[in-house]
Amino acid sequence: MITKELLKTEIDNVPEENLRVLYKIIKALEEPARATKSTFESQAQWQAFIAETFGSTSDAPLERGEPGSYEVREPLR
Known about the structure:
By secondary structure, the protein is mainly alpha-helical. It has a domain at 11-52. Helix content is 45%, strand content 0%. It has four helices and no strands. It has helices spanning 4-11, 19-30, 35-38, 43-53. The protein is extended, with a radius of gyration of 18 Å.
């Protein structure tokens, strides 16, 4: 399980030059439903954010795990 304490520890390992990008990502995740409305006032700001953060996890790429299996249940009657 990922905890806030684990995240805080990992932030200490982020290089200084990536702190601004990390900050913007954190702010965008605070309120995901309103992030594009409150964080980015224009399409140009959103595009600049994407250009700046694209590839920022290339040293530790995100990976999708194997899909799980579904429990087989009796059919509904």
